[in-house]
Protein: WD40 repeat-like protein
Amino acid sequence: MQAASAAQLFQSDTSLAIGRERAAKAERTARGGEYGYPIWIGTHSSPLPGNTAASPDAPPPDVRALATKAAGADGGLAKAITAHLASPGDRCIWTAESGRLARATDIESGECVQQLRGHTAPVSALASLQVGERLLMFTASWDKSIRVWAAGTEKRPVPLVVVPDAASDFIKALHVDAAHACLVSGGSDKVVRVWDVAPLRAWAEQQTADSWASPRGCPAPRVVDTVRAHTRPVLSLASLPPAPVDAPAADDVPTECTIFSGDSMGRILQITIAWREGREGQCEIVRELDGPETGVLHISPLWRMDDDDTQYTAEVWTTSADKSVRRFPLSARARRGVAPGRVSHAGAAHGKLSSLRADVVLPLRDAAKAVLPLSQLGSAYSDLLLVGHDDGDVDVWRVSTPPELVRVLDGHWHEVTFLDAWRRADNTLWILSASLDGTIRRWPLAEVLHPPAPSSAPVPSLLTAEEEAELAELMDE
Structure:
Protein backbone atom coordinates (compact mmCIF):
# COMPACT_ATOMS: atom_id res chain seq x y z
CA MET A 1 0.00 0.00 0.00
CA GLN A 2 1.41 3.36 -1.05
CA ALA A 3 1.52 5.96 1.71
CA ALA A 4 0.04 9.39 1.06
CA SER A 5 2.39 12.34 1.04
CA ALA A 6 2.34 14.69 4.00
CA ALA A 7 0.82 17.37 1.79
CA GLN A 8 -2.27 15.20 1.26
CA LEU A 9 -3.04 14.31 4.87
CA PHE A 10 -6.15 15.75 6.57
CA GLN A 11 -7.38 17.49 3.44
CA SER A 12 -10.74 17.44 1.72
CA ASP A 13 -11.23 16.30 -1.86
CA THR A 14 -11.76 19.93 -2.84
CA SER A 15 -8.50 20.98 -1.23
CA LEU A 16 -6.64 18.16 -2.95
CA ALA A 17 -8.14 19.15 -6.30
CA ILE A 18 -7.03 22.75 -5.76
CA GLY A 19 -3.57 21.45 -4.89
CA ARG A 20 -3.34 19.41 -8.09
CA GLU A 21 -4.42 22.42 -10.12
CA ARG A 22 -1.79 24.59 -8.41
CA ALA A 23 0.90 21.97 -8.99
CA ALA A 24 0.08 21.82 -12.69
CA LYS A 25 0.15 25.61 -13.01
CA ALA A 26 3.42 25.80 -11.07
CA GLU A 27 5.05 23.47 -13.56
CA ARG A 28 3.55 25.28 -16.56
CA THR A 29 4.64 28.75 -15.40
CA ALA A 30 8.02 27.78 -13.90
CA ARG A 31 10.14 29.88 -16.25
CA GLY A 32 10.05 32.33 -19.15
CA GLY A 33 9.19 35.94 -19.84
CA GLU A 34 5.59 35.07 -20.62
CA TYR A 35 5.18 34.19 -16.94
CA GLY A 36 7.17 37.07 -15.47
CA TYR A 37 10.74 35.69 -15.50
CA PRO A 38 10.10 33.89 -12.19
CA ILE A 39 12.56 33.74 -9.31
CA TRP A 40 12.03 30.68 -7.12
CA ILE A 41 12.96 32.33 -3.84
CA GLY A 42 16.10 30.91 -2.27
CA THR A 43 16.60 28.07 -4.75
CA HIS A 44 18.72 29.14 -7.73
CA SER A 45 19.76 32.10 -9.88
CA SER A 46 17.31 33.43 -12.49
CA PRO A 47 19.04 36.23 -14.42
CA LEU A 48 17.03 38.60 -16.54
CA PRO A 49 17.74 38.79 -20.28
CA GLY A 50 20.83 40.85 -20.97
CA ASN A 51 22.34 40.22 -17.54
CA THR A 52 25.78 38.80 -18.29
CA ALA A 53 27.17 39.16 -14.78
CA ALA A 54 24.84 36.64 -13.17
CA SER A 55 25.22 32.89 -13.19
CA PRO A 56 23.62 31.11 -16.15
CA ASP A 57 19.94 30.42 -15.71
CA ALA A 58 19.02 26.85 -14.87
CA PRO A 59 15.71 25.10 -14.27
CA PRO A 60 14.59 24.83 -10.64
CA PRO A 61 15.88 21.61 -9.03
CA ASP A 62 12.46 19.96 -9.25
CA VAL A 63 9.51 22.17 -10.11
CA ARG A 64 7.01 19.37 -9.61
CA ALA A 65 8.36 18.67 -6.13
CA LEU A 66 8.24 22.36 -5.22
CA ALA A 67 4.61 22.49 -6.27
CA THR A 68 3.55 19.13 -4.85
CA LYS A 69 4.93 19.93 -1.39
CA ALA A 70 2.61 22.92 -1.32
CA ALA A 71 -0.36 21.23 -2.98
CA GLY A 72 -3.50 22.08 -1.07
CA ALA A 73 -1.45 23.81 1.62
CA ASP A 74 -0.57 27.44 2.21
CA GLY A 75 1.83 27.98 -0.68
CA GLY A 76 5.37 27.44 -1.88
CA LEU A 77 8.43 26.48 0.11
CA ALA A 78 9.45 30.13 0.72
CA LYS A 79 6.06 31.76 1.17
CA ALA A 80 6.31 35.52 0.61
CA ILE A 81 3.82 36.84 3.15
CA THR A 82 4.66 40.28 1.84
CA ALA A 83 7.54 42.02 0.06
CA HIS A 84 9.18 45.43 0.03
CA LEU A 85 11.13 47.55 -2.44
CA ALA A 86 13.11 50.24 -0.62
CA SER A 87 13.19 52.54 -3.67
CA PRO A 88 12.08 52.26 -7.32
CA GLY A 89 15.66 51.82 -8.54
CA ASP A 90 16.91 49.52 -5.79
CA ARG A 91 18.76 46.39 -6.89
CA CYS A 92 17.17 44.14 -4.24
CA ILE A 93 13.65 43.13 -3.29
CA TRP A 94 12.95 42.05 0.29
CA THR A 95 10.54 39.26 1.19
CA ALA A 96 8.96 38.57 4.57
CA GLU A 97 8.66 34.80 4.75
CA SER A 98 6.81 32.19 6.74
CA GLY A 99 10.12 30.49 7.54
CA ARG A 100 10.91 33.10 10.22
CA LEU A 101 13.25 35.15 8.05
CA ALA A 102 13.39 38.14 5.75
CA ARG A 103 15.43 37.81 2.57
CA ALA A 104 17.02 40.21 0.10
CA THR A 105 17.02 38.90 -3.48
CA ASP A 106 18.94 40.51 -6.33
CA ILE A 107 16.29 41.43 -8.90
CA GLU A 108 18.69 41.15 -11.84
CA SER A 109 20.20 37.76 -10.99
CA GLY A 110 17.57 36.17 -8.76
CA GLU A 111 20.23 35.28 -6.20
CA CYS A 112 19.82 35.66 -2.44
CA VAL A 113 22.20 38.34 -1.14
CA GLN A 114 21.17 38.66 2.52
CA GLN A 115 19.07 36.84 5.11
CA LEU A 116 17.73 38.42 8.28
CA ARG A 117 17.22 35.65 10.84
CA GLY A 118 16.24 35.83 14.49
CA HIS A 119 12.48 35.98 14.68
CA THR A 120 10.84 32.95 16.30
CA ALA A 121 7.67 33.06 14.18
CA PRO A 122 6.74 34.01 10.59
CA VAL A 123 7.96 37.45 9.53
CA SER A 124 4.80 39.32 8.67
CA ALA A 125 5.83 42.90 7.85
CA LEU A 126 8.72 44.93 6.40
CA ALA A 127 9.67 48.59 6.19
CA SER A 128 12.84 50.55 5.46
CA LEU A 129 14.49 53.90 6.08
CA GLN A 130 17.02 55.14 3.53
CA VAL A 131 19.80 57.24 5.07
CA GLY A 132 22.08 58.42 2.27
CA GLU A 133 23.56 55.27 0.75
CA ARG A 134 22.71 53.20 3.85
CA LEU A 135 19.51 51.30 4.44
CA LEU A 136 17.90 50.47 7.77
CA MET A 137 15.47 47.55 7.54
CA PHE A 138 12.63 46.99 10.00
CA THR A 139 11.05 43.55 10.37
CA ALA A 140 8.06 42.50 12.46
CA SER A 141 6.69 39.10 13.28
CA TRP A 142 3.99 37.05 14.92
CA ASP A 143 6.48 36.79 17.80
CA LYS A 144 5.37 40.38 18.67
CA SER A 145 8.85 41.84 18.19
CA ILE A 146 10.31 44.49 15.89
CA ARG A 147 13.93 44.19 14.78
CA VAL A 148 16.18 46.77 13.12
CA TRP A 149 18.93 45.67 10.71
CA ALA A 150 21.77 47.19 8.70
CA ALA A 151 21.05 46.11 5.14
CA GLY A 152 23.89 44.95 2.94
CA THR A 153 26.52 44.55 5.67
CA GLU A 154 26.78 40.77 6.06
CA LYS A 155 25.16 37.71 4.54
CA ARG A 156 23.47 36.91 7.87
CA PRO A 157 23.84 39.93 10.18
CA VAL A 158 22.74 40.23 13.78
CA PRO A 159 20.02 42.81 14.44
CA LEU A 160 21.06 46.30 15.47
CA VAL A 161 18.07 46.56 17.82
CA VAL A 162 15.46 44.13 19.11
CA VAL A 163 12.21 45.46 20.58
CA PRO A 164 10.87 42.22 22.11
CA ASP A 165 7.41 43.40 23.20
CA ALA A 166 6.52 45.87 20.48
CA ALA A 167 2.88 44.74 20.71
CA SER A 168 0.74 42.50 22.89
CA ASP A 169 -0.23 40.24 19.96
CA PHE A 170 0.82 39.41 16.39
CA ILE A 171 2.22 42.36 14.40
CA LYS A 172 0.72 42.40 10.91
CA ALA A 173 1.73 45.74 9.40
CA LEU A 174 4.71 48.12 9.42
CA HIS A 175 5.23 51.39 7.59
CA VAL A 176 7.95 54.06 7.62
CA ASP A 177 7.12 57.67 6.82
CA ALA A 178 10.63 58.80 5.90
CA ALA A 179 9.69 62.47 5.50
CA HIS A 180 8.66 62.62 9.18
CA ALA A 181 11.10 59.98 10.50
CA CYS A 182 8.43 57.80 12.08
CA LEU A 183 7.64 54.09 12.07
CA VAL A 184 4.02 52.94 12.38
CA SER A 185 3.01 49.44 13.49
CA GLY A 186 -0.29 47.61 13.90
CA GLY A 187 -1.63 44.12 14.36
CA SER A 188 -3.90 41.77 16.24
CA ASP A 189 -3.96 43.86 19.42
CA LYS A 190 -5.92 46.52 17.43
CA VAL A 191 -3.49 49.30 18.40
CA VAL A 192 -1.69 51.64 15.98
CA ARG A 193 1.66 52.65 17.46
CA VAL A 194 3.77 55.56 16.23
CA TRP A 195 7.53 55.23 16.82
CA ASP A 196 10.15 57.96 16.56
CA VAL A 197 13.08 56.81 14.39
CA ALA A 198 14.82 60.19 14.03
CA PRO A 199 17.58 59.08 16.48
CA LEU A 200 18.20 56.01 14.31
CA ARG A 201 18.53 58.19 11.23
CA ALA A 202 20.96 60.52 13.01
CA TRP A 203 23.00 57.53 14.18
CA ALA A 204 23.20 56.09 10.64
CA GLU A 205 24.31 59.45 9.24
CA GLN A 206 27.28 59.44 11.62
CA GLN A 207 28.58 56.02 10.57
CA THR A 208 31.71 55.77 8.45
CA ALA A 209 32.20 53.12 5.79
CA ASP A 210 34.30 51.08 8.21
CA SER A 211 31.89 51.36 11.15
CA TRP A 212 28.90 50.52 8.94
CA ALA A 213 30.56 47.23 8.03
CA SER A 214 30.20 46.22 11.69
CA PRO A 215 27.72 48.69 13.20
CA ARG A 216 27.22 49.09 16.94
CA GLY A 217 25.31 51.37 19.30
CA CYS A 218 22.13 51.95 17.30
CA PRO A 219 19.40 53.56 19.46
CA ALA A 220 16.01 51.87 19.76
CA PRO A 221 12.83 53.38 18.31
CA ARG A 222 10.52 54.98 20.88
CA VAL A 223 6.71 54.97 20.99
CA VAL A 224 5.44 58.57 20.94
CA ASP A 225 1.68 57.97 20.66
CA THR A 226 -0.96 55.31 20.02
CA VAL A 227 -4.38 55.11 18.38
CA ARG A 228 -6.85 52.67 19.97
CA ALA A 229 -9.97 53.36 17.91
CA HIS A 230 -9.89 50.11 15.94
CA THR A 231 -12.06 47.31 17.30
CA ARG A 232 -10.57 44.61 15.07
CA PRO A 233 -6.97 43.64 14.12
CA VAL A 234 -5.08 46.21 12.07
CA LEU A 235 -4.09 44.66 8.72
CA SER A 236 -2.66 47.52 6.66
CA LEU A 237 -0.84 50.83 7.12
CA ALA A 238 0.34 53.55 4.75
CA SER A 239 1.13 57.27 4.68
CA LEU A 240 0.58 60.03 2.16
CA PRO A 241 3.96 60.81 0.55
CA PRO A 242 5.20 64.39 0.22
CA ALA A 243 3.51 66.35 -2.54
CA PRO A 244 5.43 66.71 -5.82
CA VAL A 245 7.20 70.04 -6.24
CA ASP A 246 6.79 70.57 -9.99
CA ALA A 247 3.17 71.77 -9.71
CA PRO A 248 0.88 73.12 -6.98
CA ALA A 249 -1.21 70.75 -4.88
CA ALA A 250 -4.94 71.09 -4.30
CA ASP A 251 -5.63 73.32 -1.31
CA ASP A 252 -7.94 70.86 0.48
CA VAL A 253 -5.53 67.92 0.83
CA PRO A 254 -3.45 67.17 3.94
CA THR A 255 -0.14 68.94 4.43
CA GLU A 256 0.87 67.36 7.75
CA CYS A 257 2.00 63.80 8.45
CA THR A 258 -1.00 61.69 7.40
CA ILE A 259 -1.36 57.99 8.18
CA PHE A 260 -4.03 55.54 7.00
CA SER A 261 -4.84 52.36 8.94
CA GLY A 262 -7.22 49.59 7.89
CA ASP A 263 -8.62 46.75 9.98
CA SER A 264 -10.26 43.37 9.45
CA MET A 265 -13.79 44.80 9.74
CA GLY A 266 -13.32 47.26 6.89
CA ARG A 267 -12.73 50.40 8.93
CA ILE A 268 -10.12 52.82 7.53
CA LEU A 269 -8.91 55.71 9.66
CA GLN A 270 -7.21 58.86 8.36
CA ILE A 271 -4.85 60.02 11.13
CA THR A 272 -2.65 63.09 11.37
CA ILE A 273 0.47 63.22 13.53
CA ALA A 274 1.51 66.59 14.91
CA TRP A 275 5.15 66.74 15.96
CA ARG A 276 5.90 68.97 18.92
CA GLU A 277 9.18 70.14 20.38
CA GLY A 278 11.30 67.28 21.67
CA ARG A 279 9.99 64.88 18.99
CA GLU A 280 6.78 64.23 20.87
CA GLY A 281 3.98 63.15 18.54
CA GLN A 282 0.24 63.58 18.94
CA CYS A 283 -2.20 61.57 16.83
CA GLU A 284 -5.63 62.81 15.82
CA ILE A 285 -8.26 60.91 13.83
CA VAL A 286 -9.43 63.19 11.02
CA ARG A 287 -12.12 60.96 9.49
CA GLU A 288 -12.97 57.52 8.23
CA LEU A 289 -12.82 56.28 4.66
CA ASP A 290 -16.21 54.59 4.32
CA GLY A 291 -16.68 51.71 1.92
CA PRO A 292 -15.13 48.26 2.49
CA GLU A 293 -17.42 45.72 4.13
CA THR A 294 -14.63 43.58 5.56
CA GLY A 295 -10.84 43.28 5.89
CA VAL A 296 -8.78 46.10 4.33
CA LEU A 297 -5.83 44.20 2.88
CA HIS A 298 -3.83 46.98 1.23
CA ILE A 299 -3.77 50.79 1.23
CA SER A 300 -1.97 52.85 -1.42
CA PRO A 301 -2.03 56.68 -1.07
CA LEU A 302 -0.48 58.73 -3.87
CA TRP A 303 -0.44 62.02 -5.73
CA ARG A 304 -1.57 62.37 -9.33
CA MET A 305 -2.07 65.22 -11.76
CA ASP A 306 -5.74 66.20 -11.98
CA ASP A 307 -7.77 65.91 -15.15
CA ASP A 308 -6.93 69.38 -16.47
CA ASP A 309 -3.18 69.00 -15.77
CA THR A 310 -2.98 72.12 -13.60
CA GLN A 311 -2.34 70.76 -10.12
CA TYR A 312 -1.75 67.60 -8.12
CA THR A 313 -4.44 65.93 -6.09
CA ALA A 314 -4.15 63.14 -3.55
CA GLU A 315 -6.08 59.88 -3.54
CA VAL A 316 -6.11 56.59 -1.68
CA TRP A 317 -6.61 53.17 -3.29
CA THR A 318 -7.65 50.19 -1.15
CA THR A 319 -8.24 46.48 -1.61
CA SER A 320 -10.58 44.49 0.58
CA ALA A 321 -11.59 40.93 1.33
CA ASP A 322 -15.08 41.97 0.16
CA LYS A 323 -13.76 41.52 -3.40
CA SER A 324 -13.48 45.19 -4.27
CA VAL A 325 -10.94 47.89 -5.05
CA ARG A 326 -11.91 51.46 -4.14
CA ARG A 327 -10.53 54.91 -4.82
CA PHE A 328 -10.97 57.70 -2.28
CA PRO A 329 -10.09 61.19 -3.63
CA LEU A 330 -8.87 63.38 -0.77
CA SER A 331 -9.59 66.54 -2.79
CA ALA A 332 -13.22 67.44 -3.48
CA ARG A 333 -12.23 68.83 -6.87
CA ALA A 334 -11.10 65.41 -8.11
CA ARG A 335 -14.21 63.43 -7.18
CA ARG A 336 -16.15 61.95 -10.06
CA GLY A 337 -19.14 60.96 -7.94
CA VAL A 338 -19.96 59.13 -4.74
CA ALA A 339 -20.15 55.34 -4.45
CA PRO A 340 -22.34 53.69 -1.80
CA GLY A 341 -20.80 53.31 1.64
CA ARG A 342 -20.69 50.18 3.75
CA VAL A 343 -23.96 48.39 4.44
CA SER A 344 -22.86 46.79 7.71
CA HIS A 345 -22.41 48.92 10.80
CA ALA A 346 -19.13 49.23 12.67
CA GLY A 347 -20.33 51.65 15.32
CA ALA A 348 -20.21 55.43 15.30
CA ALA A 349 -17.79 56.98 12.82
CA HIS A 350 -14.57 58.45 14.18
CA GLY A 351 -13.03 61.80 13.33
CA LYS A 352 -13.75 65.50 13.25
CA LEU A 353 -14.80 65.40 9.59
CA SER A 354 -17.59 63.46 7.91
CA SER A 355 -16.67 60.07 6.51
CA LEU A 356 -15.24 60.06 2.99
CA ARG A 357 -16.74 57.72 0.40
CA ALA A 358 -15.11 56.32 -2.71
CA ASP A 359 -15.80 57.61 -6.20
CA VAL A 360 -14.55 54.50 -8.03
CA VAL A 361 -15.32 50.88 -7.11
CA LEU A 362 -13.96 47.92 -9.07
CA PRO A 363 -15.82 44.64 -8.49
CA LEU A 364 -13.40 41.70 -8.40
CA ARG A 365 -13.87 37.96 -8.87
CA ASP A 366 -12.12 37.25 -5.56
CA ALA A 367 -10.17 38.99 -2.80
CA ALA A 368 -6.99 40.91 -3.62
CA LYS A 369 -4.06 41.71 -1.36
CA ALA A 370 -2.14 44.05 -3.68
CA VAL A 371 -3.02 47.10 -5.75
CA LEU A 372 -0.65 49.26 -7.81
CA PRO A 373 -1.96 52.50 -9.36
CA LEU A 374 0.31 53.26 -12.31
CA SER A 375 -0.60 56.95 -12.17
CA GLN A 376 2.34 57.37 -9.77
CA LEU A 377 4.62 56.66 -12.77
CA GLY A 378 3.38 59.67 -14.74
CA SER A 379 0.43 61.06 -16.65
CA ALA A 380 0.89 58.52 -19.46
CA TYR A 381 -0.36 55.83 -17.07
CA SER A 382 -2.94 57.93 -15.20
CA ASP A 383 -5.90 55.63 -15.76
CA LEU A 384 -4.16 52.24 -15.35
CA LEU A 385 -4.23 50.01 -12.29
CA LEU A 386 -2.81 46.58 -11.43
CA VAL A 387 -4.54 44.25 -8.96
CA GLY A 388 -2.97 41.07 -7.52
CA HIS A 389 -5.54 38.36 -6.79
CA ASP A 390 -5.81 35.48 -4.37
CA ASP A 391 -6.06 33.11 -7.35
CA GLY A 392 -2.55 34.14 -8.47
CA ASP A 393 -3.50 36.31 -11.43
CA VAL A 394 -2.60 39.98 -11.85
CA ASP A 395 -5.31 42.08 -13.51
CA VAL A 396 -4.66 45.19 -15.59
CA TRP A 397 -7.55 47.65 -15.28
CA ARG A 398 -8.34 50.85 -17.12
CA VAL A 399 -10.11 53.16 -14.68
CA SER A 400 -12.47 54.67 -17.21
CA THR A 401 -16.24 55.14 -17.10
CA PRO A 402 -17.13 52.36 -16.69
CA PRO A 403 -13.89 50.63 -15.53
CA GLU A 404 -12.52 48.08 -17.99
CA LEU A 405 -10.50 44.92 -17.37
CA VAL A 406 -7.81 45.13 -20.05
CA ARG A 407 -5.66 42.06 -19.45
CA VAL A 408 -4.90 39.24 -17.01
CA LEU A 409 -1.26 38.27 -16.32
CA ASP A 410 -0.95 34.52 -15.87
CA GLY A 411 1.98 33.46 -13.69
CA HIS A 412 1.57 32.95 -9.95
CA TRP A 413 -0.31 29.89 -8.75
CA HIS A 414 -1.16 31.16 -5.26
CA GLU A 415 -2.13 34.46 -3.59
CA VAL A 416 -0.35 37.55 -4.91
CA THR A 417 0.85 39.45 -1.85
CA PHE A 418 2.88 42.29 -3.39
CA LEU A 419 3.02 44.57 -6.45
CA ASP A 420 5.38 47.46 -7.15
CA ALA A 421 7.11 49.27 -9.99
CA TRP A 422 10.86 48.85 -10.48
CA ARG A 423 13.17 50.95 -12.65
CA ARG A 424 15.99 48.88 -14.13
CA ALA A 425 19.49 50.29 -14.59
CA ASP A 426 18.76 50.82 -18.30
CA ASN A 427 15.82 53.05 -17.24
CA THR A 428 13.13 50.61 -18.38
CA LEU A 429 10.11 50.14 -16.12
CA TRP A 430 9.18 46.73 -14.76
CA ILE A 431 6.46 45.38 -12.50
CA LEU A 432 7.48 43.16 -9.58
CA SER A 433 5.08 40.71 -7.97
CA ALA A 434 5.49 38.26 -5.09
CA SER A 435 3.27 35.48 -3.88
CA LEU A 436 2.63 32.74 -1.37
CA ASP A 437 3.72 30.39 -4.17
CA GLY A 438 7.33 31.19 -3.26
CA THR A 439 8.19 33.14 -6.40
CA ILE A 440 9.00 36.70 -7.36
CA ARG A 441 8.06 37.65 -10.92
CA ARG A 442 9.45 40.44 -13.10
CA TRP A 443 7.19 41.82 -15.83
CA PRO A 444 8.40 44.42 -18.39
CA LEU A 445 5.81 47.20 -18.18
CA ALA A 446 5.87 47.78 -21.93
CA GLU A 447 4.87 44.14 -22.52
CA VAL A 448 2.30 44.25 -19.72
CA LEU A 449 0.51 47.11 -21.45
CA HIS A 450 1.28 46.05 -25.03
CA PRO A 451 1.77 42.28 -25.15
CA PRO A 452 3.80 40.92 -28.07
CA ALA A 453 1.72 39.71 -30.98
CA PRO A 454 1.45 35.94 -31.34
CA SER A 455 4.19 34.50 -33.48
CA SER A 456 3.29 34.29 -37.18
CA ALA A 457 6.07 31.84 -37.95
CA PRO A 458 4.84 28.75 -39.84
CA VAL A 459 4.29 25.71 -37.66
CA PRO A 460 6.69 22.91 -38.64
CA SER A 461 4.97 19.99 -40.34
CA LEU A 462 4.79 16.71 -38.47
CA LEU A 463 4.90 14.76 -41.78
CA THR A 464 7.98 13.55 -43.63
CA ALA A 465 8.72 14.76 -47.18
CA GLU A 466 7.40 11.46 -48.65
CA GLU A 467 4.21 11.71 -46.60
CA GLU A 468 3.74 15.32 -47.70
CA ALA A 469 4.07 14.27 -51.37
CA GLU A 470 1.63 11.38 -50.91
CA LEU A 471 -0.88 13.70 -49.22
CA ALA A 472 -0.56 16.20 -52.09
CA GLU A 473 -1.33 13.44 -54.64
CA LEU A 474 -4.41 12.40 -52.69
CA MET A 475 -5.64 15.99 -52.52
CA ASP A 476 -5.25 16.35 -56.31
CA GLU A 477 -7.36 13.29 -57.07
